[in-house]
Amino acid sequence: MLVEQIWTGNAGRNFNYLIACAETGEALAVDPLDHEKCLAAAKAKGWAITQILNTHEHRDHTGGNAQMIAATGATLLAHAKAKDRIAGIDRGLAAGDTIKVGKTVELSCLDTPGHTMSHICVLARGDTPALFCGDTLFNAGAGNCHNGGHPNELYNTFAQQLDKLPDTTLVYPGHDYIARNLAFTLDREPDNAKANAMLPQMEQQDPARALVTTLGLEKEVNTFFRLTSPSVIRRLREAFPDLPEKPDAKTVFLKLRELRNKW
Ligand SMILES: [Zn+2]
Ligand SMILES: [Zn+2]
Q1: Which ligand minimizes its atom distance to the CA of 14?
Q2: What is the DSSP string of the chain?
Q3: What digits encode the pLDDT tens for the residues 167-211?
Q4: Confidence class of residue 94 from pLDDT cuts 50, 70 and 90?
Q5: φ, ψ for residue 22 (rounded to 5)?
Q6: Are 99 and 122 in contact (CB under 8 A)?
Q7: What is the predicted pLDDT for the residue at 114?
Q8: What is the CA(78)–ligand 2 centre distance, in A?
Q9: What pLDDT is recorded for position 222?
Q10: Exposed / middle / buried, residue 12 (Cβ in 10 Å: 0-12, 13-18, 19+)
Q11: Distances (CA, A) of 182 to 85, 111, 200, 261
């Protein structure tokens, strides 16, 4: 499987992706908002875009569909439940569905509600698993829930699905928010040595050559995976004095999401 991460350079800091079969050169474009950059990248590689996947219905993920379809004739894939919110879906996806790209790439669909209620992540299994996670999981952070989502569902997605994937899984999110998210981690867990070491580097990072994290690294620096950390809980009880001494993981997640909304 070949992956090209495309930095749009827009105000929303979106990442678009091409996932290609090394044998046939067929490619799937993930959320190709910057259709011109995606098309140029495919051309440079000699790839043919035959499918588009929208992780969810927000305009900064679907806004390039029409131009990309006009240029390539690609078929459009998205969550089956997004059919009234995304125009022209050719294939509605559900949990467990497989997407084939060329001869050699197989992606599994995860139904991952929370950021919106019709959000799909796709997982490439194999020696180096990779997760294309849209606005569900960000590097060192989690998606917000105020445009059609719900934090309870986002917690369930993290706890029941993302948490269970291998630590070696590469993380390909829909936006570059890593520096801001690491700063939030340090606000919540000032003694997180790994986040402290990473933040200055990430503040200098060129997003066109972004660090690709793994879920193992996320578990070290992403506060939304660190729900039992004594420092996180201690700091959270300063902000919410009514919290019990040992709050359950879901309560910690929801309080962190609430603080991040205003931070
Ligand atoms: Zn979104
Ligand atoms: Zn987005």
Answers
A1: 2
A2: -EEEEEE--STT-BEEEEEE-TTT-EEEEES-SSHHHHHHHHHHHT-EEEEEE-SSS-HHHHTTHHHHHHHH--EEEEEGGGTTTSTT-SEEE-TT-EEEETTTEEEEEEE--SSSSS-EEEEE-SSS-EEEEETTEETTEE---TTT--HHHHHHHHHHTGGGS-TT-EEEESB--HHHHHHHHHHH-TT-HHHHHHHHHHHT--GGGPPPEEHHHHHHH-GGG-TT-HHHHHHHHHH-TTS-SS--HHHHHHHHHHHHHH-
A3: 999 999 999 999 999 999 999 999 999 999 999 999 999 999 999
A4: very high
A5: -65, -25
A6: yes
A7: 98
A8: 15
A9: 98
A10: middle
A11: 32, 27, 10, 15
User: Is the sign of the CA dihedral 232, 234, 240, 246 positive or negative?
Assistant: positive
At position 19, the amino acid (one-letter code) is: I
Ligand 2 geometric centre to CA of 76 (Å):
18
Q: How far is the CA of 68 from the centre of ligand 2 (A)?
A: 18
Compute, in angstroms, the gap from residue 243 CA to the centroid of ligand 1. Answer: 30
> Which tokens sit at 96?
């467990």
Query: Pairing between strand 48-53 and 26-30?
Result: parallel
Q: What is the pLDDT of residues 122-170, one digit of tens each?
A: 999 988 899 999 999 999 999 999 999 999 999 999 999 999 999 999 9
SS (H, E, C) 76-114: EEEEHHHCCCCCCCCEEECCCCEEEECCCEEEEEEECCC
Mean pLDDT within 97-104: 97
Question: Across all residues in the chain, what is the average pLDDT?
Answer: 97
**CA 119 to ligand 1 centroid distance, Å:** 9
